[in-house]
TrEMBL record:
Gene3D superfamilies: 3.30.450.40
Database matches in InterPro entries: GAF (IPR003018), GAF-like_dom_sf (IPR029016), Phosphatase_reg/MetRdx (IPR051330)
Family per record: Belongs to the free Met sulfoxide reductase family.
Domain GAF, residue spans: 38-156
Protein name from the UniProt record: Guanylate cyclase
SUPFAM superfamilies assigned: GAF domain-like
Top-level lineage group: Bacteria
GO cellular component: cytosol
Lineage: Bacteria, Pseudomonadati, Planctomycetota, Planctomycetia, Pirellulales
One Gene Ontology MF term: L-methionine-(R)-S-oxide reductase activity
Length: 166
């Protein structure tokens, strides 16, 4: 079992933080190809390592909707139509969504009223959408482009280490 590295050093910048976190993700994925196991462990690592978040998890594409996968946090919406809310927008556009104030996002789905900002990254195999990584925060303006870049590296590691669903 891999121990998650403590990321409590506030003197490091986000790039260094995500490099260290990426190392933790890579270590826990090494030798395991199962998609569900890997996304479950990835959600747990993100939830416990990221500051000021209240939800971290995955939605997987099934037909024209995203269906809840492994996550950490309060119970969540189970199905989200492509194009609806932040997750649906990220999936439909195949583009990361960094939302500083979720209540200002058109069609925002409030699964947890405590969430104030959100970042959602599409999970892409080539040009094929597999799902999304969704992270919520109770803090306004919690996420920025440095978070997007750091999380993208983690998503890339996850996708490369896993046997993706057909």
């Amino acid at each position: 079992m891999h121990e998650i590295t403590a990321h409590d050093d506030l003197s490091i910048d986000k790039a260094e933080f995500y490099a260290r976190l990426g190392g933790d993700v890579e270590a826990i994925l090494t030798g395991e190809r199962d998609w569900i196991a890997n996304t479950a462990n990835c959600a747990a690592i993100l939830f416990h390592a990221l500051r000021e978040i209240n939800w971290a998890g995955f939605y997987f594409l099934q037909g024209e909707e995203l269906v809840l996968g492994p996550f950490q946090g309060k119970p969540a919406c189970v199905r989200i139509a492509l194009g609806r809310g932040v997750c649906g927008a990220a999936g439909a556009q195949k583009r990361t969504q960094v939302v500083p104030v979720v209540h200002e996002f058109p069609g925002h789905i409030a699964c947890d009223s405590a969430s104030k900002s959100e970042i959602v990254l599409p999970l892409l195999s080539g040009d094929r959408l597999v799902g999304v990584l969704d992270i919520d925060s109770p803090i306004l303006n919690r996420f920025d482009e440095a978070d997007a870049a750091g999380l993208q590296a983690i998503v890339d590691c996850l996708l490369g280490a896993s046997d993706l669903p057909v």
